[in-house]
Amino acid sequence: MRRIRLGKTEMVHCRGLTKHCFINEAGKPVSLKQSCLEFHDMFAKGLCDYKNQQ
Q: pTM for this one?
């Protein structure tokens, strides 16, 4: 779980969990399928190729 803390006090401001592994310029999680379909398709093909080699 990710925690966002205030620098000086280390007080936790929020906690969260995501399955997204990519972030945008602002550091927020994004879905490749929605934001960059070309990369999503490339990763999906790579996963499929990997599974077929097993």
A: 0.52
